[in-house]
Amino acid sequence: MIINRTLHEMMQYLTEAFARIFSPNDDKYPAIGVQPFYGEIYHSGSSIDW
């Protein structure tokens, strides 16, 4: 009986993992899109005065 229960639990664990990997994602991230850049563009020829 212990072997039967262990095999059952192992198969249940594997099938739940398989279902989690191949199911559609359930992330609740907002659909925000591309964010604009409001910084200064780096110019390699400019010198920085510390």
Biggest sheet layout: none
Average pLDDT taken over every residue: 83
- Counting DSSP H or I runs of 4 or more residues, the number of helices is 1
Element order, helices and strands?
H
What is the distance, rounded to the nearest whole angstrom, between the alpha carbons of the first and last residues?
76 Å
Cα gyration radius (Å): 26 Å
Number of strands: 0
Fold and architecture overview:
The protein is an all-alpha fold. 42% of the residues lie in helices and 0% in strands. The chain is built from one helix and no strands. The protein has one helix spanning 2-22. It is elongated and about 75 Å long.
Summarize the structure.
By secondary structure, the protein is mostly helical. It has one helix spanning 2-22.
Explain the layout of strands and helices:
Elements: H1 2-22
Key attributes of the depicted protein:
50 residues; mainly alpha; 1 helix; 42% helix; elongated
